[in-house]
Give the backbone structure.
Amino acid sequence: MSFVDRLLLQMTLEEKIGQLNLVSYGKVDTGTVRSVGVAKKIAAAQAGGLFGTHDPAEARAMQTIAVEQTRLGIPLLFGLDVIHGHKTIFPIPLALSCSWNLELIRKTARIAAIEATAEGVNWAFSPMVDIARDPRWGRVSEGAGEDTYLGSQVARAMVEGLQGDDLKRNDTMMACVKHLGLYGAVEAGREYNSVDMSPVRMLEDYLPPYKAALDAGAGSVMTAFNDINGVPATAHPEILNDLLRKRWSFDGLVVTDYTAINEMVEHGMGDLHDVSAVALNAGVDMDMVGEGFLETLQQSLDAGHISETQIDMACRRILLAKEKLGLFDDPYLYFSDERAKSRILTPEHRAFARETIAESCVLLKNDGNILPLDRSAKIALVGPLADDTLNMPGNWSIAADSDDCISIRQGMRNVAGPDARIAYARGSNITDDPRVIAAVNYRIERVVNDPRPAVDMIDEALRIAKDADVVVAVVGEAQEMSGECASRADIGIPEEQRDLLQALRKTGKPLVLVTISGRPLTLAWEHENADAILHMWFAGTEAGNGVADVLFGGANPSGKLTMTFPRHVGQVPIYYNHRRTGRPLSPGLEFEKFKSCYIDVPNTPQYPFGHGLSYTSFEYGPVELDKTSLNGERDVLHARATVTNTGAKTGKEIVQLYLTDPVASMTRPVKVLRGFEKIELAPGQSQQVGFTITVGDLKFYDLSGAEIWESGEFIVHIGASSVSTQSASVIWAKDASEERAVAAKSASGAA
Ligand code: BGC
């Protein structure tokens, strides 16, 4: 009998139910309910884990209570939202995904784990792998954007980074994939809203990243707040039991989101007894903060609504997680004063954080190669985020200290040197809207407003602008304008900052924008009026240095968008791999009567998925395929294109492979990403980039939920973005006779 099974045999029912309870230390409460009497509950064996602290002394004291004061001495799990770094903060996850550099992403997660575990945390509520196509939703900042293929790769890299190859090591931690499921599809982008989705879309677009994270070995899963087709995700038998437990064979730990069981009462699913029982029966193991399990499971058992086996199974999975982490061997494994001193915010971690910025920021526009800046130019640096450290980390940076962050102003001075001529004026507040300020300053005051009248601030900015060769305006969102419960209906640059930009434009001076946000923004005016736009997202501890490296050309930007930037918020949800309509707009047109379009804005985005410029230029040769026709499941197709750096600087390019299935038994997306490679080329250098395409890349789900593929012609696109590709087509059939049939149809122009 295994250690855990023996332990289970010794446990009373109360002790088992106690393990299913996750309490919080209340420092990162994300709801109105808080855990109370935490130490007492731990001493009474009424908690299986604690989250929300990264204070090793505090956590150690709690572990000591669990180990020394309870009958069986079962150690606690220590959870925390370790999302994009711990003390060394990296760019937000959406930004990191724009690097398309999986090794880099893996390393950020590795460093995050090294730092967080040194402070006693052994369970990361990360990665968030929710596919998101609606930038109004504030939590798009926490994920990898709109694409399933890329999102799945990023999910895997994150899990590998956090968990390493041995969970028992003291510098690796258990990942928690969240939020199962489909949280990224909340209606109208409004936080905690409903999700109603076809099974095909779920299977094809939204579920694969969760699966990819689990295939990479993620030890736990967090349920979502939203309902799915009328059933809350936290008690969704089809998602949790049928899909997660049975189809995906997941035997790890399932934890709810913050009070998600209790919230089912508000969803209208019954009282706390009812909802706790359905959650347990659906496959939930651990109840975050709400204590529905603690308060009701005994009675539900007595009433026959749940079984003891169900409780045993949940408890067993929690104990197994502790065993996997090595906590039964040493409950204090993750506490180390020595590691806390030597492995947190090290120069190496900071240097790496700085490097990640050029890879994840996106050069949206650069007319006349105005960037990089000349170090000897007279620069007017303006904008409410130019001299800011409070907002640099980005949301979910619990352990960050903004004093460790480098502002852009400081970074520019560091990079350009003491002789640089950089004049600074704030120019405007981030926002003067009291409603928004109240919403974003709820915990820490990050929108700290200058009391001067707006015109005075603008005048000051204009004075330095008039005297400058170039204006650099750093504008965008405050940290908490994206993230949890930070949906925005207007996703533009806030009005006060736009007023500043309009005034600056009138000076006629070259205008460079550095834009900061946790979501795609609508930048139509900015695109029309600025000479260059460098979108830096929230770039973390080294924000200022990393951005200054790019602004002055010490580093070449190489990020490409993983979420479409709309022209207008009315276009959302907007994403590149939409399905084909029966009345598509003719190419090049913005409006045609009785075609799928708007009368007031074009269909196309401001900046498409995959877009991102560089200080050099790349040219793509034609797509070459090694075959024109294939048959059978085992055949593979090799596609390649030669990419040449035609500019004057060394640069990195993200070469993207998309496929189109032009004729199928279901409507298929216009194109889907199926591969990418980030390469670096010196000026004049060429490289052949090759991709291997298998039948798996052609597959899709039919109405019965089966994964299928169909014989036909397929188009292979290779290029620099979702809208800038070259293509070649190929026939791929199930067997030789279907191959002949497709070829004949194709020859007659009907395929
Ligand atoms: C969030 C989760 C997070 C949890 C614990 C919730 O409000 O939705 O993503 O892990 O709080 O902090």
